[in-house]
Design goal:
Blueprint (H helix, E strand, L loop, with lengths): L3 E6 L3 H12 L5 E7 L2 H11 L3 E5 L7 H11 L4 E7 L3 H9 L4 E5 L3 H21 L12 E6 L7 H15 L4 E5 L7 H4 L8 H6 L6 H4 L4 E4 L2 E4 L13 H11 L5 E5 L6 H9 L2 E6 L3 H16 L7 E8 L7 H7 L5 E5 L2 H10 L7 H4 L2 H14 L1
Helix pairs in contact: 2-3, 6-16, 10-11
The chain binds adenosine-5'-diphosphate and magnesium ion.
Magnesium ion binds next to helix 6.
Length: about 375
């Protein structure tokens, strides 16, 4: 049997400790997945801790137990709230039940009452939980993370990730997020003509990265179903952005989008590896230059040694031009079967679109060119 996951919300530390002690006697069946002293934090914790049951005190600072209960039942209908209250709070109790609490328990309670109530509530509402699974936090959205990576700069990683994101947001009724994780030289904001907007660094400095709600104001809404998280504007900022921070941000944003496209930095540091690990697909971008191809080969070897499945990594040769002394066939032969996609070189439209801050695939005139079609083909491979 799965353990029942319980989150404890009470502003009195002593009370939380007593509850934890009681629950620890049932550790085979019950697991405490988090605790908090205020209702606002409980809502944030739920996203990551995914409790089955919240033990909720009524009087708490910031957001009280009643309001928190109401929001939990609205936002996370599968989470069961059990109100803990003292006798004198009868009136509140009624309100709490009205706001969607499943059960209540009167303080002070003993071991039998606490455990009995948790198990009985869980059993009773488990069925409903199954029914509501579609609305459960696990299930709300399971973001498909797609990473664009290269072992050399200037190969077109940003151009391709941005245009892919745009095409996906157009063709599919899906919620897309593009994260510019080239923390040193992130160019996406320029490419969409949105310089000096809020960046990931602002969110980090303001301490607003623990939940989607927190990060939301730092996202740029490119259009209704397409958000972008820009990279910092000063290269030195990249030093502060540790893997732990990246992990927090990814966890907070995951499940809020159908597809998250990440334009990564160009070395295998901890943050990049974290994203590559969690990615469902990695697009490794290279050009036709022999040096780029050599580095790409090395990069692919690293990924192989990391145990990535073969079909997780796709190679994209950008700026393909038959006049550069290496043929398509030679490139294909140098890499494994079926992993290569070619994007033709076409400087004029690319440079104009960058300079105008108007992505290529946004512009009907260019979108019809070979380069636009090739990017479209590539983005289709993502959804299939
Ligand atoms: N298919 C292409 N054809 C011609 N030029 C391209 C193409 N893709 C990218 N470029 C050029 O390469 C430059 C670098 O692209 P960018 O996406 O910024 O690279 P990266 O993110 O890998 O550093 C761009 O400024 C653009 O002018
Ligand atoms: Mg770039």
């Amino acid at each position: 049997m799965n353990k029942i996951k319980v989150l404890i919300a009470d502003d009195v530390e002593e009370t939380r400790n007593v509850i934890k002690k009681l629950l620890s006697l049932e550790e085979e069946h019950i697991e405490v997945v988090g605790e908090s002293d205020n209702g606002e934090e409980v809502l944030k914790l739920i996203q990551n801790a995914k409790p089955d049951i919240v033990l909720m005190d009524i009087n708490m600072p910031v957001l009280n137990g009643l309001e928190a209960t109401e929001r939990i039942t609205m936002e996370y209908p599968s989470v069961m709230v059990i109100i803990m209250s003292v006798q004198a709070e009868n009136e509140y109790l009624k309100k709490a039940m009205f706001h969607g609490a499943k059960e209540y328990i009167i303080k002070p309670f003993n071991y039998d009452t606490l455990i009995g109530t948790i198990i009985a509530t869980y059993e009773k509402y488990k069925e409903i939980q199954v029914k509501f699974k579609g609305a459960n936090i696990d299930e709300v959205r399971n973001s498909k993370v797609i990473a664009f990576f290269s072992s050399k700069g200037g190969v077109g990683k940003s151009v391709l990730s941005l245009n892919t994101a745009i095409l996906l947001s157009k063709s599919e009724n899906k919620k897309i997020l593009l994260i510019d994780m080239d923390f040193q030289f992130g160019d996406i904001s320029m490419m969409v003509n949105q310089h000096s907007k809020k960046t990931i660094l602002d969110a980090i400095e303001d301490g607003q990265i623990d939940s989607y709600e927190n990060i939301k104001p730092y996202l740029f809404k490119y259009k209704d179903n397409f958000d972008i998280l820009f990279a910092p504007e000063k290269p030195e900022a990249s030093e502060y952005i540790t893997k732990e921070i990246v992990e927090k941000i990814m966890k907070a944003l995951k499940n809020q989008y159908d597809v998250i496209i990440v334009d990564t930095g160009i070395n295998f540091n901890d943050s990049t590896l974290y994203v590559l690990d969690m990615a469902e697909k990695i697009f490794m971008i290279s050009t036709m230059e022999i040096v780029a191809l050599k580095n790409t080969k090395l990069g692919l070897k690293v990924m192989e040694s990391l145990g990535y499945e073969k079909n997780k990594v796709k190679l994209v040769i950008n700026r393909f031009n038959p006049n550069y002394g290496i043929s398509k066939k030679e490139v294909e032969d140098a890499f494994e079967d079926g992993i290569v996609t070619f994007i033709p070189e076409d400087e004029k439209p690319v440079i104009i679109s960058i300079n105008k801050g108007m992505p290529l695939c946004e512009d009907k005139k260019y979108y019809k060119l070979k380069i636009g079609k090739a990017i479209e083909e590539m983005s289709k491979k993502l959804i299939s």
